[in-house]
Amino acid sequence: MTGTLQAAGTVCGVLIASELLSKLCPRDKMLGFVRGLVALMLIASLCTSIISADWDWQLDTDEIGNNEALNEYMEDQYTKAAREDMEEYIRGLLGAAGIEAKKIRADIHITEDGSISCTKASLTFAFESEARRARAVLSGALKGVPLEVTVDGA
Predict the structure, then answer these.
(1) CA-to-CA distance for 49 and 36, rounded, in angstroms?
(2) CA–CA distance, 147 with 153 (Å, rounded to integer)
(3) 88 and 48 housed in the same domain
(4) Number of structural domains in the chain
(5) Over the stretch 6-41, which tens digit does the pLDDT of each residue have?
(6) Dihedral (CA of 25, 29, 34, 39) sign
(7) pTM of the full predicted structure?
(8) Residues 65-103: tens digit of each pLDDT
(9) Measured between alpha carbons, how far is 151 from 134 in angstroms, rounded to an integer?
(10) CA distance 89 to 121
(11) Are residues 145 and 114 in contact, defined by beta-carbon separation less than 8 angstroms?
C-alpha cells in the first residue's frame, strides 16, 4: 500500500513540476521537449508501480474441479465417438454381405498413446441364418475380437 501511495505522490509531483515548467518555458520547441520528457517520466513511473506491486493471485479450487470435470466429459465423448465409429464399421461390413443386425454393441479400449482397439462385439439378429452368416463374415474381418452373436426371433 505504501508503494502505491509513493507512486501516486511521484505522479502528482511530476505533474506539478511539468505545469510549472510549462509556465516558465517559452512557447516553442523547448515546451514540446519538456512535455515529452514529462510524459516519458509518467509512463516510467506507472510501469515501475505496476511491476513492483505485490499481486496476490489465488487460484480458486472450483476452477480446478471444473477442469477435471471438463477432461472427464471430453474423455467420455471421445470414447462414445470411437464406439459409434466401430459400430458403424461393423454395420458396414454386414451391409456389404447383405445382412442387417437388430442391435450392435462394440466394446472398445483406448490406450495411453491414443490407439483404439475393439475388445468385444455383441450383435443381435432376427434369424439364425443371419447370425451364422454374420459370424462367418465378422470372424474374418475382426480377428482376435470375441464375438457374441445372439438371435432374437421377435
Answers:
(1) 20
(2) 19
(3) no
(4) 2
(5) 777 777 777 777 677 667 666 677 767 777 777 787
(6) positive
(7) 0.54
(8) 567 888 888 889 999 999 999 999 999 999 988 999 999
(9) 11
(10) 11
(11) no
